[in-house]
Structures are given as structure tokens and as C-alpha cells.
Amino acid sequence: METALKKLRSLISPIGNAILGSSGNDLQVTQPEPDVMLVSPTPQGFKRRVTDASGAAIETVRRRIDALGTKEPNIVRQGVNRILVQVPGFDDTAQLKKVIGKTAKMTFHDVHPQVSAEEARQTRVPFGYKIYESADGDKGAYLLREIPVVQGSDLVDARPGFDRRNGQPIVTFRFNNRGARLFGRFTAKNVGRPFAIVLDNKVLSAPVIQTPILGGSGQISGHFDVKEVNELAIQLRSGALPTPLTIVEERTVGPSLGADSVAAGEKAAVVAGLAVSLFMIAAYGLFGLFSLVAVIINLFLIMGVMTLIGSTLTLPGIAGLVLTVGMAVDANVLIYERIREEMRNGKRPISAIESGFTRAFGTIIDSNLTTLIAGLVMFWLGSGPVRGFAVTLSLGILATVFTAFTVTRLLVATWVARQKTSKIEAPL
Asked: Which homologous superfamily is 258-417 in?
């Protein structure tokens, strides 16, 4: 007993660090009776585990919502054991609850080679094994080894797809090096025997191993539709929740509560657009008007692509649009100033216009490429409103380069072609 107590107490670790100091231990080992040992978490240890689980759950939920598209979710902790999830622009609450509420803990288990689940129920369950129900109730139950062959944490990727043989929706998965090694070793030793794929303590399928699977990848098949395999792939890619989530309150809020903020953002966009319009017309005359037409087409392109990819336009997105207007005009300013410079050097207007568009191209690409890289990094590393801003900024840069060298150039070329004289005065 003394040796056992000593070994158990060696598992205790302090809570805290060298800088902040220790605030207690995570576990306590007591001996309420001479032949009984009790290992339990301390209040400080229990609180730390709840805090860690909440933090991990927030990151998992965020990854799952981000995989649905750019929705700019707001996910914060409330109190000790609650998480507030706000997803603007997403109307299908049933799908949202299904995606974020499922634990999605996947494991791969060995099936008992001799005893079935029905026989184990009538006699006794062998040591080290456990009866798992099938996700499809018609397939009954399975007697599986409790310790899994491969953990779901070894999954590095999961994607929806279709079976080449029958065209049924499936989920393809890929293990990391450790999982691939364990999976390959197990399948090589158990050819001809079934193994079970378990999700949240329910057996999805129990296929028979035909050949050793040494590539570290496989597929999950079953009675799935396309929507279900997409949701399952999202849940597996984002990782399992550390604990099941229970939805205690649900609200659907209309946009009227944020109407004042949206109105303020729209007002700022209109004022910025008018100011830019006045400046361009005053500085470049007719060519400035051409630039404004290109900017309007630019905005339509951005909104069209955002609609196509299902991105939600919120206040950070409006800020990105306002910034895009300035950047689009900046590209045209570089072109027009280049044309002016060529005309001051003695070139004729048509040659100056051609040189202005040609020589300004490299400068505009260089200046916008660095901003595009920053936008892509924000989308990759950021979340929520940061990703929304990054989406509109990145799309705005691509649309700016396109409109500056197609729309603006087309308008200028059309104006030149309609001049009835060979001597043209550029209105700059």
C-alpha cells in the first residue's frame, strides 16, 4: 500500500509556472480506509481542466465554422463552462448545431475474432473488450477491443469524395506518420479480418481488410448523402471536441439591432466615394470619369465574387471595400501621371497613352502584390472579422488590377477611336 501511494503521488503535478508561482496541485491522493486509495482532482485542478477544455472547444468550434465559409464568427467564453457563438449571415441553424455540437471523436478498433456482441451479452464480455452499437441500427452491435488501434488525433486530413466503384459519397482520410505506421502494421497482420471505424462510440462501418494499407490513407463509407459526408469531413478535419457540448440557448437575431452600425458604415463608404470622385474629376477631367466607371465595375466584381463564394459582408468588409476604392483610384493615378510625364517628354498623346499603360503595369503589380500577400496572410492566420476584411481586401486588389488595365484602357481606347482628327489632345 505504501509503495502504491508513493507511485500515485508521483503523478501529482503543480498548477502554475515558475514566473507566476504555483497555485496548488492538480490531483490529490487520499486513503479514506486502510485498503482503499482515492485519486481525485483538486478544486484548482478541476477548474484548470474546465478552462483548458473550454479553450480547446472554442478553437475547434472556430475551425469548424471557418470550414463552412467566411462567416466571421464571434466565439467567446462566458463564465466558467459556457461558450457564446455568434455567426452572422448564416440562416441554417440546424446545420450549424449539427456541425459544432458533435464531438466527432474517431477511433479505429480491432474486432473480436471469435465472440460476437450477441454471444458476449448472453455470457460475459471478455476482458479488454466492449460492446459498441452500430450507427445504423439495422446492423446490430460489435464486440471491439477497448484500446483503439489508431486514435482520431492521428488524422491530419479528411475530405468528401465519391467511391469509384459505385459512386456513393464517402470520406477519404489521411494519417500522420505515427498513425500511418500503426495502421499499416495492424492491417498487414490482420488481412481477412474486419476492423471497425468508430465515431462518438458508434460503429460507422466494419470493413474486412483485403490487403495491407500502407499508404496511411483510407476511406469511410456508409449510408451517407453528400451533405452528411461534407459535415463529417469538416468535423474530422477540425479535430474532436474535448468534451460534448450542450446547447442551452439559441437565438436568431435580425439585422435591425446592428442597423445603426451598418448605416454608419454605408455613410462612410458613400462619403469616401464622393470625395474620391470629386478629386479624380477635378484632377484628370474626362479620364477621371473613366476611372470612376472602372471603380464602380470593380465594386460589382467584388460583390459578385463574394456572393459566389458565400462570404458575408459585415463592417470589416465594408472597411475593406472603402480601402479598395482608394487603391483602385491609386492605380489609375499612376497610369495618368505616367501619361503626363510622357507628354512632357514630347510624345504625341496616342503614344503617351500607350506608354503610360504599358510602363505603369510593373509598378502597379509590385505595389499591389505586397498588399495581396498581407491580405492572404491575414486570411490564413486570422479569424472572424479579420478574415472578412482580408477577403474583401484580397478580392479588391485582384479586381483593381483587372479593371485598371482592361476597363480603364478600354474606355480610353474607345474615346481615342472616336476622335475624328489625327491630332488628339489628351484631357489631362
From this structure: Multidrug efflux transporter AcrB transmembrane domain (1.20.1640.10)
